[in-house]
């Protein structure tokens, strides 16, 4: 599926004239599969009532910096237009009622599929994070605390864990800002090591949307912004989802 997506993305990037020709991926319709309004899109991603577990809630493993900054952003959801995003164990749960276009659909066991950043179930041992999204400004902030199962150099987080969190924050932001679904490129420049158990703040912005692509940037830093851990940029492909057929 990813290979098919990259093939189509390359075709879109190098042969812009093909945008008007038959293609595997449909061109994005502003009144997309989510409905005719932004509200309907968020209502699917942010269900008011659900029995699904939200993993982006405080637990005993969160450090004091993460807890206090989480509370600060919760206050911003009341007055500044920020939205706390729930984090379920699978992206399937975030897009219930929708599916990939038939050209990219695959059959797989739905029994216990998990998103990579929620694959470690023990609290505090792996990826502890929460994402806040600002829809008007098309930007997000992710609070990330790497656990000991993500260690690279002794006492410090593996660079791949930060890359995974950047990709995850990019993807959720791209999805809500413009139906971005697939990572086309991800470039990272690491600056400093991250101590295991410490807080990383990731500021993500959508820089532009054109040619069915979202161009995004991220800076990962300490809470006091005195230490920059990494800078990255990413490009995501827009893709219109389809309504699932009634069973």
Automatic annotation (TrEMBL):
Record keyword Lipid metabolism present: yes
Enzyme Commission number(s): 3.1.2.2
GO biological process per UniProt: fatty acid metabolic process; long-chain fatty-acyl-CoA metabolic process
Catalyzed reactions: (5Z,8Z,11Z,14Z)-eicosatetraenoyl-CoA + H2O = (5Z,8Z,11Z,14Z)-eicosatetraenoate + CoA + H(+); (9Z)-octadecenoyl-CoA + H2O = (9Z)-octadecenoate + CoA + H(+); hexadecanoyl-CoA + H2O = hexadecanoate + CoA + H(+); tetradecanoyl-CoA + H2O = tetradecanoate + CoA + H(+)
Uppermost EC category: hydrolase
GO MF annotation, one: long-chain fatty acyl-CoA hydrolase activity
GO cellular component: mitochondrial matrix
PANTHER family on file: ACYL-COENZYME A THIOESTERASE THEM5
Family: Belongs to the THEM4/THEM5 thioesterase family.
Name of this protein: palmitoyl-CoA hydrolase
Source species: Pan troglodytes
